[in-house]
From TrEMBL:
GO molecular function, a single term: hydrolase activity, acting on carbon-nitrogen (but not peptide) bonds, in linear amides
Name recorded for this polypeptide: PIG-L family deacetylase
SUPFAM superfamilies: LmbE-like (SSF102588)
Pfam families: PIG-L
Signal sequence residues: none
Species this chain originates from: Acidisoma cellulosilyticum
């Protein structure tokens, strides 16, 4: 069985479903991860991009460090990772040179109408990876928080799954799934299923919480922004995974029904 995961950013898949991936690898199944928005920042930076660079604390080329974090996480998971080099929302501009997503609120609302071409580009990249990997199942974000980049990946994955008759599964983006982040639109499972008109069935997988924490800690540049501290991250992850599985730490994946 070949499992192909599409991660919008350099952390989304490993932060969300490291336990499921570990179970698949332990069963001898093949896993590949494609991280889409991994391109270095073009100049000049928008004020929003400048703010994120300051938070990340990785200098003028933060994606050099962030790509390495992603590779380290995937090494722990024992999976191949491909970086597609697309520019994430904070860097994209319209033909007039203006930032498409000048504020955080803009980024967590919807895809800007001037940004539709990004979906076509993502779908083309996805199709190439599906064919190269001979994927049996593809994985995309559920859409919690409605980040514009996540919405673009969802739209492309949906079209791809329909055109290629692929099984599509969805992962709950963490920490969005904890219901605290982002503050502009806290993640809610039922609301998200309804917004994207997902018809899907959930399944849970028990996980090794310590291994998942080790994977999460690979993304050192993101911990302060997302959680404030390592201790807060640990507490939040334990609470979320226990809530999914009852008493045992678990992750939840949704299979889209046809």
């Amino acid at each position: 069985m070949n499992h192909l995961y599409f991660s919008p950013h350099l952390d989304d898949v490993p932060l969300s479903c490291a336990g499921v991936i570990s179970s698949q690898r332990a069963a001898g199944e093949n896993v590949r991860m494609i991280t889409l928005f991994t391109g270095d920042a073009p100049e000049p930076l928008s004020p929003l991009a400048q703010r994120y660079h300051a938070i990340w604390g990785r200098g003028d080329r933060p994606y050099v460090a962030r790509r390495e974090e992603d590779r380290q996480a995937c090494a722990l998971l024992g999976v191949d990772v491909h970086h597609e080099g697309l520019l994430e929302a904070i860097y994209r501009r319209g033909t007039d040179g203006e930032a498409l997503y000048p504020t955080r609120a803009d980024m967590f609302r919807t895809i800007d109408g001037r940004d539709d071409a990004i979906v076509d580009e993502i779908q083309a990249r996805m199709l190439a990876q599906v064919q190269d990997f001979k994927a049996d199942i593809v994985y995309a974000p559920l859409g919690l928080g409605r980040h514009a980049d996540h919405q673009a990946v969802i739209a492309a994955a949906r079209r791809l799954a329909d055109s290629e008759a692929l099984e599509l599964r969805l992962y709950e983006e963490w920490p969005y799934a904890a219901g605290r982040f982002p503050k502009e639109r806290p993640g809610r499972i039922a609301e998200t299923l309804d917004f994207f008109q997902w018809h899907a069935e959930p399944s849970t997988t028990g996980i090794d919480i310590d291994h998942r924490l080790a994977v999460a800690r690979c993304y050192a540049s993101q911990i302060e922004e997302l959680f404030d501290s390592d201790e807060a991250m640990v507490n939040e992850l334990r609470a979320y995974t226990s809530g999914v599985g009852g008493r045992l730490p678990s992750e939840r994946i949704w299979t889209v029904l046809r």
